[in-house]
Design brief:
Number of helices: 9
Oligomer: single chain
Distance between the termini: 69 Å
Number of strands: 13
Largest sheet: 5 strands, antiparallel
Helix content: 25-40%
Length: about 375
Amino acid sequence: TTMRAAPEASLAHADVQWFGNRTDRASAVDIDGTPLQRCLQAAEALDYVPLRGLVRTGHLPQRTDPVPIRPDGQPHQDFVFLAELAGAGPFRRVDKPLYYKRAHSSSAHHGWSADPAEQRREEWCALGDGLIQVALRTQPALDEHRLVGVLLDRLAIARDGRGFWYLPEQTEHGVSAFIREFFYRHHERLPDANGAEMQKTTGFERPVHRWVHGAIAAVQTAAATLDTLVDTPTPSLELSFGLDSPSIWMLGHGWWTPEPWGTWTQAGLAELKLPPHTFRRLTVIGHPFAPTGPVRVGVSVGNTGAVEQICEGTTVFSVDLDADNVGEHQRILRLHTPDAVSPLEAGVSADSRRLGFGLCTIMLER
């Protein structure tokens, strides 16, 4: 009846009545407005209730599987599907429970909730990438800079009513680190630094935290600065990884907040992406966290095996970039630190961070 009364609607959803381990009733509100406004409302809500609704088949995405499937198998793409449906037409609520859902400890969601934080962070980034892709298709001339800011605010900033699969640390450094990792994983989403910003575009009536604006601007500046450095015709290039260095935007997952001297790896594995240029040799300089004696540290690039050393003080690794499987498409540098331990565990301070290798400098030789 609701769908017949609203032929423009793409979805009608009733309330969800839980039973078993919980007995509350969950509901979701109507979604209205322009296609972009509706898409952003769905992204803001990330509500599971409409997934149990009735979908108008004429509004389904034209592909074999309406729910987007990522090559990496990331979950939560059903929320990307809902945002896409919202862009196609309004959502309407039916004010009564028609869907009954059992809550139990062996549900898939409970299993996902036990995933490691780094895995949930990767999945949260993939969700954001999907939402940006969907929103970009809602209108021809879209302020991409503003859109990315709005959706990164949704992913990174805790506000009333927001739910999170992964919540970044709510500090400027924590939010900046998350946004840096987002662009590391989805670098094509980094907006043009010279593009429009903060325009009064319909659908963007949402706040964007200054930490988000600052992090995006920092990555844009760092990327441009690093490109300039890399393009300089010198026989070698030295990249430092201390606080405020443009090189830190190359850092992917597995890193603590950069410090004035460099950046610690978090635990067993950390990644960074080398500049997209041809170099013949890579030298990594840093020091392990080794409070009780020598530890193992390995370095690998692309699909090559790790070069491992037993080290204690300042350590230098050299990697031949002319080796097989190290080319433009294999530029991921990995630091392996199986002996990572926290200062607290080692009894040297109250710092609970698990520290592996402190990266100071990378030298690239042409």
